[in-house]
């Protein structure tokens, strides 16, 4: 790997600065600049050179997150399907089910990213230095040969400097013993460190599965990509060492790591999904599982419909103004106004739209169908992709090594100091929850995905000593609305 780093350094020097070179024909020196245009290599080497993960569910560098893959539980490997997507839309093989996966192929291929799109995607990422620092930190903690910065030579330097007598080398027969430092993990602590990393669930494609990067005898940790080091140092390390080091040692390591990366990465993009969210409210989205059509409780369906209206229709302000005009005295009570809005908005919108339509007035088609309300037959899914994000139900996540059921929401809500106050204050509150069900409400000409969530009570949310938000999902708020529209 050191040879690879030297090669990169030489290539950057050749392109950015150049080197002084002698021209034997002209008998003079000139500044030579060069660039590596392409390489010829097999697929695994392609992954090593580019940093792209060429194995697992998203192994195709062209299809990326749209790779059609499936895990074979008996063969213990991933197979890749969906090749019929590359055929013309009217090709007869698209309709042949039994010859393939018993499904008709309706999908189409996505255009590969252009050079400009790839450049924009990667702008701001400079993680080679971060990767080196990360390897030094966990290599020293785990005392990994070749990666630790606390080896024999470092201890001999302590002897030369005459400091840290308790850490200086000690002869043991024909061998030299290095006393363990306060930051060195023993075998039991290493197992606990690796166990913590291997059981942490993160969203799809957030980072590699650390369980696959650790050797069976926990003697080494190999194959970490730059993004893995980024995630480890910024988010996972504080939890991995929480129970294995003395509190003062742990606090020093975490503070130094966070301070370094806050300075080093202050102009870089945050980890996770780098795509910008799509600014649209009503869209079909993409189910990630087969749906089941079920009848739901009418009251709960009305709640879901009301939540959709509040987040999609641009007519709620008019409803609030009419409530104020018709009830000037009562509308001074914000709590009463909020209750009336929730109780009457659905019927008010339907009446308003029907009246305008009967009078021949122009009405936005989406608003007209929203006013009619959703179908009583609701399609439910265990997974859904929308606005460039993937969402799963908790039941789907239970059998997976990743999790996409966690959600957070910043909402402007009423905050009541006590029962004596009838005019509450409005403020921004962050809610944390998990998705229990995914509904796709059918409004005839479009559908709207709605998530049924369990939200955590405010008493189950706190900040730890390092500013991380800790959420206790055992403390649920049973009075909050369970709905969420993405």
Overview of the molecule:
- This protein is 34% helix and 18% strand.
- Strands 8, 9, 12, 13, 14 and 17 form a six-stranded antiparallel sheet that branches.
- Strand 13 and strand 14 (447-455) form a beta hairpin.
- The chain has 13 helices and 17 strands.
- It has four domains: 2-32, no CATH class; 43-104, no CATH class; 128-264, no CATH class; 286-485, no CATH class.
- The chain is an alpha+beta fold.
Structure summary:
It contains 13 helices and 17 strands.
Question: Measured on Cα atoms, how large is the radius of gyration?
Answer: 29 Å
User: How many separate structural domains?
Assistant: 4
Distance between the first and last residues' Cα: 43 Å
Uncertain residue ranges? 268-283
SSE ordering? HEEHEEHHHEEHHHEEHHHHEEEHEEEEEE
Number of strands: 17
Mean pLDDT over the residues: 78
Using the alpha-carbon principal axes, give the shape: globular
Subunit arrangement of the protein: single chain
**Strand portion:** 15-25%
What is the helical fraction, as a range of percent? Answer: 25-40%
Tell me the number of helical segments per DSSP (H or I, 4 or more residues long).
13
Which class do the helix and strand fractions yield? alpha+beta
Q: How would a crystallographer describe the biggest sheet?
A: 6 strands, antiparallel
């Amino acid at each position: 790997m050191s040879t690879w780093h030297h090669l990169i350094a030489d290539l950057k020097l050749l392109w950015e600065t150049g080197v002084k070179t002698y021209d034997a024909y002209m008998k003079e020196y000139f500044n030579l600049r060069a660039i590596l245009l392409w390489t010829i290599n097999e697929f695994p080497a392609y992954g090593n050179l580019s940093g792209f993960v060429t194995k697992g569910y998203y192994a195709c560098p062209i299809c990326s997150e749209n790779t059609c893959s499936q895990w074979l539980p008996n063969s213990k490997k991933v197979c890749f399907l969906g090749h019929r997507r590359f055929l013309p839309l009217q090709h007869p093989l698209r309709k042949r089910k039994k010859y393939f996966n018993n499904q008709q192929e309706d999908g189409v291929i996505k255009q590969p990213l252009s050079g400009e799109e790839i450049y924009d995607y990667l702008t701001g990422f400079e993680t080679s230095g971060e990767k080196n620092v990360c390897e030094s930190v966990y290599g020293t903690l785990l005392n990994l040969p070749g990666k630790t910065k606390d080896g024999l030579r470092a201890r001999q330097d302590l002897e030369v400097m005459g400091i840290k007598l308790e850490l200086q080398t000690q002869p043991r027969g024909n061998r030299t013993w290095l006393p363990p430092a306060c930051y060195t993990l023993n075998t039991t602590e290493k197992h606990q460190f690796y166990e913590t990393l291997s059981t942490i669930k993160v969203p799809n494609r957030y980072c590699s599965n650390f369980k696959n990067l650790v050797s069976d005898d926990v003697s080494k940790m190999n194959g970490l990509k730059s993004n893995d080091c980024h995630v480890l140092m910024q988010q996972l390390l504080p939890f991995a060492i929480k129970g294995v080091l003395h509190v003062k040692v742990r606090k020093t390591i975490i503070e130094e790591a966070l301070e370094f990366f806050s300075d080093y990465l202050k102009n870089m993009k945050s980890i996770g999904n780098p795509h910008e969210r799509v600014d649209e409210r009503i869209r079909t989205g993409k189910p990630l599982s087969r749906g089941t059509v079920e009848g739901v409780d009418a009251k709960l369906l009305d709640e879901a419909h009301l939540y959709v209206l509040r987040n999609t229709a641009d007519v709620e302000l008019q409803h609030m103004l009419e409530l104020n005009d018709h009830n000037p005295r009562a509308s001074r009570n914000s709590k009463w106004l909020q209750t009336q809005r929730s109780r009457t908005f659905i019927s008010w919108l339907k009446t308003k739209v029907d009246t305008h339509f009967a009078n021949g007035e122009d009405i936005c088609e989406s608003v007209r169908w929203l006013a009619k309300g959703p179908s009583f037959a609701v399609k439910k899914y265990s997974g859904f992709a929308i606005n460039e994000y993937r969402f799963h139900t908790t039941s789907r996540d239970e059998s997976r090594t990743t999790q996409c059921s966690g959600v957070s929401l910043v909402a402007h809500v009423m905050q009541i100091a006590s029962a004596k106050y009838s005019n509450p204050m409005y403020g921004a509150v962050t809610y944390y929850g998990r998705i229990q069900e995914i509904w796709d409400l059918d409004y005839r000409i479009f559908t709207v995905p709605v998530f049924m969530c369990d939200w955590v009570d405010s008493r189950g949310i706190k900040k730890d000593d390092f500013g991380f938000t800790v959420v206790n999902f055992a403390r649920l708020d049973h009075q909050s609305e369970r709905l969420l529209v993405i």
